[in-house]
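pasting for ref
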Amino acid sequence: MYFSKAHGGIKAELIESPATSVFDAAKLPYSVRQDWSDLTPIPQHEPGFAPLCPIMYSNEYRDAMDYFRALVQAGEHSKRGLELTEHLINLNPAHYSVWQYRWETLLELNSPLEEELEWSDEVVRRFIKNYQGWHHRRLLITKLRNPKSELSFISAALKQDSKNYHTWAYRQWLLAEFNLPELWAGELGYVEELLDEDFRNNSAWHHRYFLVFGSGVRQGEEDREAIIRRELTFTKQKIAIAPNNPSAWNYLRGVLEHGRLPFSNERLFVELYVVSKEPSDPLVPRSTLSEAADDVVDLDNPGPSAQAELPVPLAIEFLGDIAEEEGDKEKAIGVGIYTQYLDKIT
C-alpha cells in the first residue's frame, strides 16, 4: 500500500500482495479518515512561515501532530484521542505534551487504569530509556496504590538494561513512596545478586548506598556502627576480587564519609594493593609502607589474588586521599603524579 497526491489531495491506493489483501483503514492519514473529518488540522507553523532549520518530520508524524493540536485546542478528551496518543507515542515516545494529554484523558474518561498499566508494560519495555514512559507508570501506580508486582517488572527491565538510570530511579521512587516492609525485604539480596553478576555495575553500587544509608533506618538495622562494619567488609571483599573496579573504591569512600571515619582507617588494607611485584620499583618502595603490608593475614583486610596486577592505580589514588586528609600535600601531589603515570602505561 502507498499514498499518492491526486487533484491536490491525498489518495490511498492498495497494492495487493500475498500478505495484504484487505485495506487497513487505520493506516490511512487522519486527513482522509471520515471519523476525523470534524476537526481542522493545525500545522506546526503558520502558512508562509519558513523556519531556518526545519526538523524533517515524516509525513505520518506531521499528519498525526496536526490533528493532535486540533484535538487539544478543541479541549476534547475521547477514545479516539487515546488512540491518537498511542500512535504518536509509538512515533515519538519523548513527547511530553502527548503523554500529559493521554493522562488527562484517562482521568476524564474514568478509564480502567489496570488496563493502561498493562499497555504501559509493553511501551516501557520498547522505549526503556525514555523518561516519559516511566513517569506515566509512576502516575498510574500512584493512583492505583498497588505496587506489589512492580518490583518483578522492574527487575525484568533491569535484565534488559542493568544500568538504565530511569529504571533505577523508578525503583527507588517505588520503595520510598510506599515504604512497605515487604518491598524493602529482598532489596539488599537483590543488589548482591547483581553485583555477583557484574561487580562493576555502578548503578547497583549506587542502589546499595541508597538502601543502606539513603533511605532511613529499618527494623534490624538500628546498630549503625555494625552496619558500617558490614559494608566495609563487603566492599573490601569485592575489591579483593577486582582491584581495578572504581565503583567499589568509590563506595569505600562513601561508607567512610557517611560514618565520619578518616580514610586512614583503611591504610593497611589499601597498602596491600600498592606494593609493586617488582622489588626494585623506585616509585613505590616497600620501605615507605607499613610493615603490615609485607605479610598480612587479616580477615578484615583481604589482600589481592596472586593474579592481580600490582600496584593498583585506584589504591594509590586512595593513598593520595589519605595524604591530603592528613595535610601531607607534598606526598599527595607525588602520589597523584604516579597515578597519572600508571594510567598511561596500563
